[in-house]
Design goal:
Helix content is 58%, strand content 11%. With 123 residues, it is mainly alpha-helical. Strands 2-1-3 form a three-stranded antiparallel sheet, with no helix packed on it. α2 packs antiparallel against α3.
């Protein structure tokens, strides 16, 4: 791991504060040396531990971890598409009823009533 830099040395001063070791005067004797390592936080593996403890194999756990978010994304996309189609159907049926009522006479009003009854039964 030659590409990684050396960890930064941090020392605790007598007053309890911390500072970098390269910024101290040469005569200072540190009381405690603290090595600061910066790591990425490990992932939460609670679900995997429970699943492995219940007898599910590691492959099934890996598949769940991988395909779980994909499934959520796909279902969200499908739900959004269906919501858009339902909205378009409602707007178009409202438009048809409005046009039939305004253009037609008594026959148009009767057809609009029939259409609105059918729409209510569908709900």
């Amino acid at each position: 791991m030659e590409s990684l830099p050396e960890p930064v040395r941090v020392v605790q001063l007598p007053d309890g504060t911390y500072t970098y070791a390269d910024q101290l005067p040469a005569t200072f004797q540190p009381t405690q040396v603290v090595h600061q390592h910066i790591h990425q936080a490990p992932p939460d593996r609670t679900v995997q531990r429970i699943a492995l403890g219940s007898g599910i194999g590691a492959g099934a756990v890996a598949a769940g971890v991988y395909f779980g978010p994909l499934l959520v994304g796909a279902l969200t996309a499908i739900a959004a598409s269906l919501a858009l189609l339902a909205f378009l159907a409602a707007v178009l049926s409202w438009g048809v009823v409005t046009v039939v009522r305004s253009v037609g006479g008594k026959e148009g009003q009767a057809a609009a009533k029939t259409l609105s009854r059918v729409r209510r039964k569908g709900k």
